Give the backbone structure.
Amino acid sequence: MGKSQRFPVGFPPIIREIIKQQVGILGNSEAEVVKNIVLIYITEKGLLKKFKSQNKKEGREK
């Protein structure tokens, strides 16, 4: 995936419980579950495809 960056985030208790329930389903740790939820969201919204095509047009894709 290349270089990764960490983002400190805070969630209300109810969201933390949902994330904990998804450990083992969407990932092996809470951090992995959050990462996968973000990736799923980006994919569903088509943002990744838009970003890739924009970078390709500008000649930035590697």
